[in-house]
Amino acid sequence: MHELAVTQGILDLVLDAARREGGGRVTAIDLVVGELASIVDDSVQFYWDLIAEDTPAAGARLRFRRVPLQFECRSCRALFERKGDVFACPACGHDGVRVAAGDELRVESFDLEDDVPREP
Ligand SMILES: [Zn+2]
After folding, report:
1. Separation of 95 CA from ligand 1 center, angstroms?
2. What's the gap in Å between 71 CA and the centre of ligand 1?
3. pLDDT in tens, the chain (120 residues)
């Protein structure tokens, strides 16, 4: 599954960022996962425990924050969440919308051993 590639990407990013912060053990990572990202939390943690072994991020706890799918109206720029099967803009009725949030997967922050949260 693609969780392995995703997990590898997160690990590379966090190890890089930790090195820039002067190194140390990574103890926890906060991830933002969109509703559309189709990521299974348990799979990511599973792969993490495999591939992070022997790195400074071994055993780090992954915390997932789910964000709902959100749309932006192409006409009036209103942001809204889908209600059932209706995709039209609730503000102006326009039916041209784009996904504004909900397809992302990113590292929000991570903790080094000294417990100060870092920006990646
Ligand atoms: Zn609109």
Report:
1. 8
2. 10
3. 588 999 999 999 999 999 999 889 999 999 999 988 888 889 999 999 999 999 999 999 999 999 998 999 999 999 998 877 778 899 999 999 999 989 889 999 999 987 566 778
Closest CA to 14 of 97, 109, 87: 109
Tally: H helices and E strands in the chain: 2, 7
CA of 97 to the centre of ligand 1 (A): 8
pTM, entire model: 0.78
What domains sit in the chain, N to C, each tagged with a CATH number? 3-68+102-118 (3.30.2320.50)
**Cα 93 to averaged position of ligand 1 atoms, centre (Å):** 6
Ligand 1 is an ion; residues with CB less than 5 A from it: 73, 75-76, 78, 89, 91-92, 94
Given a contact cutoff of 8 angstroms between Cβ atoms, the answer to whether 26 and 59 are in contact is: no
